């Protein structure tokens, strides 16, 4: 089971503007990115979501992950060597989710309410599972020290940036 999520809060005053020239900093030779005002962040979030889904204990190197992003109408999707995903955008954020094919998942993005986004997003997952599945869970770590749900050891992926946070996880049985 593979799940990954990443987001970029475009309203972050510390976020540096990135134009098409900056793509070379994160590009793999097989990348394909549509012409878009936020091409850099589309590619970045897709690559980081794939990286998180792979659950490896190595530093993130976006140049080692090939991603092809396509746009159809108002829908952005992407394909890596092993996973497909979707990219969502509004005025404030860009976020990408990816999960194993035929794996029903939950994902949620919310505005941050506290100064502890890591703790807040974990509490959000526990509350979400209790509300939607009537299951008491805890967020634990696996042998790689990566987050899992105590129920069925389901992998979880978290993200937070500036004013937003989110998660993706497989639907518990």
Defining key terms:
173 residues, three-stranded antiparallel β-sheet, 2 helices
Written overview of the protein:
By secondary structure, this protein is of the alpha+beta class. The chain has helices spanning 39-54, 117-133, and strands spanning 3-9, 68-72, 75-79, 84-89, 93-99, 105-111, 139-141, 147-149, 157-161, 164-170. Strands 1-5-4-3-2 form a five-stranded antiparallel β-sheet, covered by helices on one side. Strands 6-10-9 form a three-stranded antiparallel β-sheet, covered by helices on one side. The mean pLDDT is 95.
Described by the principal axes of the CA atoms, the overall outline is globular
What share of the residues lie within helices?
10-25%
Percentage beta strand: 25-35%
Query: Which structural class should the secondary elements be placed in?
Result: alpha+beta
Order of helix and strand elements from N to C terminus: EHEEEEEHEEEE
Mean pLDDT: 95
């Amino acid at each position: 089971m593979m799940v990954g999520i990443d987001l970029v809060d475009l309203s972050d005053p510390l976020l540096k503007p990135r134009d098409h020239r900056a793509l070379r900093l994160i590009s793999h030779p097989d990348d394909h990115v549509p012409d878009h005002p936020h091409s850099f962040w589309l590619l970045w979030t897709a690559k980081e979501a794939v990286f998180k889904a792979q659950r490896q204990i190595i530093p993130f190197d976006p140049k080692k992950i090939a991603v092809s992003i396509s746009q159809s109408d108002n829908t952005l999707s992407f394909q890596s060597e092993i996973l497909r995903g979707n990219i969502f955008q509004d005025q404030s954020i860009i976020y990408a989710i990816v999960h194993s094919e035929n794996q029903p998942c939950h994902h949620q993005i919310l505005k941050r309410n506290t100064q502890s986004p890591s703790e807040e997003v974990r509490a959000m997952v526990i509350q979400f599972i209790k509300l939607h599945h009537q299951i008491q869970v805890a967020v634990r770590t696996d042998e790689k020290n990566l987050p899992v749900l105590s129920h069925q050891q389901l992998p979880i992926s978290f993200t937070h940036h500036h004013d937003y946070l989110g998660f993706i996880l497989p639907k518990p049985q």
